[in-house]
């Protein structure tokens, strides 16, 4: 008997129809299920078809505990739900497989129409596992504070408040690289290369590769381009005074949902994390096949 976790985006499966379809199918084959509801960037338990009594407040994060015998987590939603699930299980090292209830679904490979076939493969252990690199960011404040977080997709340093250009000093391995005047910069993993990085004109990388991509957001120059770095490189981004020596207010955004404010004098150190996210696959389809289909869908 395998123990499956089902992680459901409440907004994508409002009626819980798909969640119950999966739970019933797995339990009818003798397996155990625990359902967890992801809501407003947080999660609460949901066992045997009965939701828990309360949800966390909006914007509140809670550390989740997971059963030690969990075989994998089936994530129902879109790529954003997969990112939140990856953040939640980062310490538990539970592999994920995504069911696409969103739109693009680069990370959610199982379509609802092929659900039972995919579940049969999961139950039989006929899956492939792919280890995806993550980023670790440490923010050092002028007051001596240190805030640490992780991301599977990207860490975005962007302006906060008024619509104005921000200045950023970027260093790699202690060596000065460039001053950016832009709306911000994106530091992304190969997994995140098809997200905000792609929208900002950055390159697409094969998800299992090991590299770091730095892409400026709307740079105020004709010569700024994305830079591909080694996974061993250490990136430092410092927040200098802005125009006329004014204090700059920016944000460090981890995977689009975990936001840390920064200001002039603060800096962030970004490296490849020791943590990884394990993604399970039941399809014998290459990333290039998926990419070709997704790009055609958005022409």
What brief labels describe this structure?
6-stranded antiparallel beta sheet, about 300 residues, about 15% helix, 6-stranded mixed beta sheet, Tumour Suppressor Smad4, alpha+beta, 5 helices, about 40% strand, single chain, 18 strands, Rossmann fold
Measured by DSSP, the beta-strand proportion falls in 35-45%
Structural class: alpha+beta
Q: Report Rg.
A: 20 Å
Biggest sheet record: 6 strands, mixed
User: How many DSSP E strands?
Assistant: 18
Spatial order of the strands forming the largest sheet:
4-3-2-1-5-6
Q: What is the chain-wise order of helices and strands?
A: EHEEEEHEHEEEEEEHEEEEEEH
Number of domains: 2
Could you name the CATH homologous superfamily of the largest domain? Probable inorganic polyphosphate/atp-NAD kinase, domain 1
């Amino acid at each position: 008997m395998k123990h499956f976790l089902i992680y459901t985006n409440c907004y994508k499966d409002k009626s819980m129809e798909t969640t119950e379809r999966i739970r019933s199918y797995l339990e009818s084959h003798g397996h155990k299920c625990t359902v967890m509801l992801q809501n407003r960037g947080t999660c609460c338990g949901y066992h045997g078809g009965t939701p828990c009594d309360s949800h966390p407040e909006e914007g509140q994060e809670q550390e989740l505990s997971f059963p030690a015998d969990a075989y994998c987590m089936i994530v129902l939603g879109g790529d954003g739900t997969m990112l939140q699930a990856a953040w939640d299980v980062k310490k538990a090292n539970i592999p994920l497989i995504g069911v696409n209830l969103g739109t693009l679904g680069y990370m959610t490979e199982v379509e609802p129409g092929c659900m039972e076939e995919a579940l049969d493969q999961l139950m039989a252990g006929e899956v492939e596992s792919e280890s995806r690199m993550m980023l670790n960011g440490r923010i050092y404040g002028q007051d001596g504070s240190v805030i640490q977080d992780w991301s599977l997709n990207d860490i975005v340093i962007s302006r906060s408040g008024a619509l104005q250009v921000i200045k950023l000093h970027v260093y790699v391995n202690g060596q000065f690289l460039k001053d950016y005047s832009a709306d911000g910069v994106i530091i992304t993993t190969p997994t995140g290369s098809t997200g905000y990085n792609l929208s900002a004109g950055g390159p697409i990388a094969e998800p299992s590769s090991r590299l770091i991509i730095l892409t400026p957001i709307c740079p105020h120059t004709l010569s700024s381009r994305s830079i591909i770095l080694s996974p061993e490189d250490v990136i430092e981004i410092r927040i200098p005074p802005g125009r006329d020596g004014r204090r700059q207010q920016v944000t460090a955004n981890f995977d689009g949902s975990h936001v840390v404010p920064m200001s002039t004098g603060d800096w962030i150190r970004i490296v490849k994390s020791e943590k990884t996210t394990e993604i399970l696959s039941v399809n014998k389809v290459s990333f290039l096949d998926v990419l070709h289909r997704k790009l055609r869908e958005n022409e």
